[in-house]
Structure to design on (202 residues):
């Protein structure tokens, strides 16, 4: 029986990956490291890991902290264009009506998490959100989802993680959660609600 749901945000609840890519391409290009706007290798990857891959292309004095600040500023400037995936908000609302505890578990930094949540307009349906700053190790490490389960007060095997990336799914599985991957047509949202709906006994 699923008793709680831990949602990834980027690429799961909200169509944010194109915005992340645009921000990354803009900042990288500014420092002489052209990145394609549809670069897929950073999908779901924590920012410090992305920076580690790109650092050899940047000026030697360009720090991680400065890079994160510029990426966040570029992303937040584009946040008005973010849109929830069809069915995402409705699924969260349905689970809230059922009394299912929910949280968001993200690999993004807090400013980006808050920008995404503002666009999702989920009210008090979520108990809390976990951002990259809240853990020592981000996804694919188990820590983000393990922390979410502790804060929800629900055992990992009774918690469903909803993810779109290999990195995120690996994190949830390592923490002992069940995992559903989002699909192209949004049918996963109905499945999440179905897995949390009490079955009528004959």
């Amino acid at each position: 029986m699923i008793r709680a749901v831990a949602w990834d945000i980027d690429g799961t609840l909200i169509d944010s990956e194109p915005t992340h890519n645009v921000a990354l391409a803009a900042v990288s290009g500014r420092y002489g490291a052209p990145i394609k706007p549809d670069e897929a290798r950073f999908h779901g990857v924590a920012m410090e890991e992305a920076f580690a891959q790109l650092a050899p292309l940047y000026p030697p004095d360009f720090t991680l902290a400065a890079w994160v600040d510029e990426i966040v500023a570029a992303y937040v400037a584009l946040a008005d264009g973010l849109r929830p995936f069809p069915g995402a908000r409705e699924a969260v609302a349905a689970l809230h009506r059922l009394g299912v505890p929910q949280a968001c578990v993200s690999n993004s930094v807090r400013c980006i998490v808050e920008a995404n949540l503002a666009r999702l307009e989920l009210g008090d349906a979520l108990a809390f959100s976990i951002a990259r700053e809240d853990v020592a190790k981000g996804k694919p490490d188990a820590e983000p989802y393990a922390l979410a389960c502790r804060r929800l007060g629900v055992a990992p095997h009774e918690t469903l993680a909803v993810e779109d990336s290999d990195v995120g799914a690996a994190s949830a599985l390592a923490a002992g959660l069940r995992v559903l991957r989002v699909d192209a047509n949004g049918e996963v949202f109905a499945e999440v609600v179905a897995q949390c709906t009490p079955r009528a006994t004959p």
